[in-house]
Predict the 3D structure of the following.
Amino acid sequence: MRFWHKILLSVLPLFVITLDVSVIMVMKKSWQLNIDSETQRASSEQLLIVNNIYENLSSIQARGNPLTPILLASVSQSYGDYYRKQGIYLQLWENGLMIYPPQNENIMEQSSGNSGEPEALGARSIQLSTPLPVPYQHMRLVYQRDISELFAKQQELNRFFVMINLIAGPILLLLLYLLIRQLSKPLNLLSETSKTIAEGDYTKRVQLRSRDEFGELALNFNRMAEAVEQRVTELSEMAEQKQRMVDNLAHELRTPLTSMQGFAEFLTTANIGQEEQQTAGGYILSETLRLKNLAFKLLDLSVLRHQPLALRQVDIPELFQTVQQTERPKLEDADIQLHVHQRITTVWGDADLLASCLVNLIENAIHASKRGSEIQMLAYELNGEAVLEIRDTGAGLSAEQTNRVFEPFYRGDQARSREYGGAGLGLSLCRQIAEAHQARLTLDSDLGMGTCVRIFLQLHNNCPPTL
């Protein structure tokens, strides 16, 4: 059973019962008010008749006439004939005996038993009995008003209520159906959208602009869908990167291992001279160093991902001197000048990792630069941050290469990288070092114009980050 079915089957009976009970209570209260009004009217009229009869009897006695039963019946008859036209019937009793109307004209039944009191003819009348004032207290006037018309109106109202129920019930059912269907439409939209997302379409959103709770639910649902889509996209990209890294690693291992296998077989199976043995051994050694370099780079990446850093003040002149000494042989072989400019003296960081980062950046710059060119290594302050910069005027990178240059095993120039024994892990390692320092690493490059890489660190007078 659907949710709107449950709402309809729950609300309709409850609404009908509540409405019927309320109408019945109103009708009952109205009936009671009408009865009270008629009773009050009857009491007023009875008191008026009693006073008139009292005045008539007093006037007759004042003239010296005795109050005989015939005279009492005659006085009562004048009032009885007048009020009978209005549906009011009168009786006059004296000492338990009915004087008016005579027995052959009585429209009321005498009471049975010893009480001598009259009884009502039926339930559709108002009957009141009141003694006359002194000295006629031994006489009693019985007043009876016919209220059959009031009962008839009440019955007509009851029939009208039943008829309205029979007509209003289906109309109410239809209106509630339309209303509940309209109110539950956002739930249907949410259900359809969630089903679409569950089938793999993470771009689907709920198109609902209401400002009520359903609108807020739709807004939160869309936010959740966006977060899920973003997370799924990130996981897909991570899976793609991991697969590409595995493919690249397999490719990187295959080339040196194949060379090493070939030269090893050559050494063991061929009858060669000492010079050829040295040549083959040199190739095996160079490929072994290449594999060693690859293994160490992968180890460095793994350590950076799992080991937090303890940052300290790093002396910039000492850091730059270490990097210069490390790269001097390669710079001399490539006939490239390294120019150093420093405007700050210390930064917060890890000296060994920063040196490794700068060495990798300088080696990349050497590979991309021509003989006789120059590379700049700078340290300066910018907007409250320390900047370490490596700038070259080499081959540069295209926009596509710039977007992928930090991926592991990616090479902007495959032939040049292999020529120098690179594995495409240098810039990936630099990015990991920057992230470990909670620093920013930026790369700006124009094809044929050169490349500029900056690391934004904390100055020595800034508080060190909590890692």
In short: The first helix runs from residue 3 to 62.
